[in-house]
Design brief:
disordered C terminus, alpha/beta, Rossmann fold, about 425 residues, elongated, about 25% helix, 2 domains, 8-stranded mixed sheet, Spore Coat Polysaccharide Biosynthesis Protein SpsA, Chain A, single chain, 12 helices
C-alpha cells in the first residue's frame, strides 16, 4: 500500500504564526508536524510515502530526501496549485498507483488505519469520519448503516455536534477514469457528487483529532500533540536479537531440537529483569521469506524459547519478528519498515509497551541490530562479536562490545 499525503497547501490562515515553512512543516515542540505524521503512518509498513508538494516544496524535499525510517519517500510536485483532487490524481498518474491511503498533511487523528484498510480493501472509496462538538465548522456528514449518504455544507452561524470528514481516504484509481480538469477539488468534484452512486463505506475514529490549520488549534498541537503520540513512557526494556544472542546461530534455526542457548544468556537477562527491564525480542526471520521454514515453524520454536526463559525466572514480555526479505518468495519478497536495520520492530514495541527508549538497551550480534536501535533512539547498545564467525566487521557504532570465544564458551566484556 502506498500512502499519499497532501502537503502542498499554502496555509493562509496560519500565516500569522507560521511564515517561513510550508504548513505541514510547522514546528511542534521541536519536530515538524509532517515528521510526526509520517512516524505514526510508518507502522502500516507502506511501500512508500508519496508527498504531494507545492508551496516551498524544497523545504520538505531537503528535509526528508528519499527515505524516512527506511521507507522510500517520493514527490509529486505541483508547478501550480492543483487542488486536492488534482494533486491526488497527479500522484496516481505519476507513480502508476492502483490504490492508496490518502491524508491531509496538516491534520492528525489517532485511528486504527490497518483495520480501516483491511475492512475496505474491496471498496473503490472509503472515508474516515470523526465526531466533533461543532460539525458545522467543517461540514456535516450524514450516514445510514455503514455507508455515507450525504454531505452538508459548512455553516458557521450554527454550532452543532455531529460527524465530519476527517480527510482520510482509501482511494482507487477507478475514481479518476472520467475526464477531469487538471485542477479540481477531491471533496467537491469527486466525493460529494459520487455519494449517490458509490455510497462509500466509512470508519468512525473516536480518538484524538487535531487540525493545525488555524492559530488556535496549532497552539493546542504545540502543547499536547507529542504527549498524545508518545505517551508518558515510563518502562525500560532490554531488546534482544535472537540468533547469535539468545540461541546459537546455526543458520535458519527453526527446529526445537537444534536450539542451543548462548552461554550466560539467562543470567544476563535475569539481571536486567531484576532491575525492572522488560525483555523484548526483535528478530529478522528471512528464512520464512526464503522458504527455509514456515511461520508455523517459527512460532513453535518461539513458544519453546519463551517457555525456557520462564523456567529460568526471566520471562519474555514480547517478541516481534519480520518475515520479509527483498529476495524472498511471494508474498514476503519486499522491503519492510520492520526489517532491521530499520527501526520498526523497536518503535512498535515502544508504542505497545510504553517504553522509554533512551533509558533502554539492545543487545545484538549484527551491526544491523545496532543501527536499528540507534535509529529508534535506544540509549545503550551492546554488540556481540564472535571471533570464530564474524557477522559484519569488527567496526561498530555500538556503545559496548561483548567478545565471545566460541570454543571456550567464555564471555569477556
Amino acid at each position: 500500500m502506498n500512502i499519499v499525503i497532501l502537503a502542498g497547501g499554502f496555509g493562509t490562515r496560519l500565516q500569522s504564526v507560521v511564515r517561513d515553512v510550508p504548513k505541514p512543516m510547522a514546528d511542534i515542540a521541536g519536530t515538524p508536524f509532517l515528521e510526526l505524521l509520517l512516524r505514526e503512518l510508518s507502522f502500516l509498513d507502506p511501500e512508500r510515502f508519496v508527498l504531494c508538494v507545492s508551496y516551498k516544496k524544497d523545504i520538505i524535499k531537503d528535509y526528508f530526501k528519499d527515505s524516512f525510517l527506511g521507507i522510500p519517500v517520493v514527490y509529486s510536485e505541483e508547478n501550480e496549485p492543483l487542488g486536492t483532487g488534482g494533486a491526488i490524481k497527479q500522484a496516481f498518474d505519476l507513480f502508476n498507483l492502483n490504490d492508496a491511503l490518502v491524508l491531509n498533511g496538516d491534520s492528525y487523528i489517532q485511528a486504527n488505519y490497518a483495520r480501516f484498510l483491511e475492512q475496505n480493501k474491496n471498496e473503490k472509496l472509503a472515508v474516515m469520519l470523526k465526531r466533533v462538538d461543532d460539525a458545522n465548522r467543517y461540514g456535516r456528514v450524514e450516514i445510514e448503516n455503514s455507508r455515507i449518504v450525504d454531505f452538508k455544507e459548512k455553516n458557521t452561524t450554527i454550532s452543532q455536534p455531529g460527524l465530519i470528514n476527517a480527510g482520510i481516504y482509501k482511494v482507487t484509481k477507478d475514481l479518476f477514469t472520467r475526464s477531469l480538469p487538471n485542477k479540481f477539488s477531491f471533496e467537491q468534484d469527486i466525493l460529494e457528487p459520487m455519494i449517490p452512486q458509490l455510497k462509500p463505506r466509512f470508519m468512525l475514529a473516536d480518538d484524538y483529532f487535531i487540525d493545525i490549520g488555524i492559530p488556535t488549534s496549532y497552539a493546542q498541537a504545540q502543547k499536547e500533540l507529542k504527549s498524545v503520540i508518545y505517551g508518558n513512557a515510563t518502562n525500560r526494556a532490554l531488546f534482544l536479537d535472537r540468533d547469535g544472542v539468545i540461541s546459537e546461530d546455526i543458520g535458519y534455526l527453526h527446529k526445537i531440537q537444534d536450539c542451543q542457548f548462548m552461554p550466560g544468556i539467562f543470567d544476563f537477562c535475569r539481571q536486567y529483569k531484576n532491575n525492572g527491564y522488560k525483555l523484548i525480542i526483535v528478530t529478522n526471520q528471512a528464512g520464512i521469506a526464503k522458504g527455509k521454514f514456515s511461520e508455523q515453524d517459527y512460532k513453535l520454536l518461539t513458544d519453546f524459547i519463551h517457555s525456557q526463559f520462564k523456567k529460568q525466572y526471566c520471562e519474555i514480555t514480547a517478541e516481534y519478528y519480520c518475515p520479509y526479505h527483498i529476495d524472498g518468495l511471494p508474498p514476503y519478497n519486499r522491503n519492510s519498515f520492520y526489517r532491521k536495520p530499520n527501526p520498526g520492530m523497536i518503535l512498535r514495541a515502544a508504542k505497545d509497551y510504553n517504553i522509554n527508549l533512551p533509558e533502554s538497551a539492545l543487545i545484538g550480534d549484527n551491526e544491523t541490530d545496532i543501527l536499528a536501535a540507534k535509529s529508534a533512539g535506544v540509549g545503550n547498545t551492546i554488540r556481540i562479536i564472535n571471533e570464530q564467525n564474524m557477522r559484519g566487521t569488527k567496526t561498530t557504532v555500538a556503545d559496548n562490545i561483548i567478545k565471545i570465544i566460541q570454543k571456550q564458551k567464555i564471555i569477556h566484556k
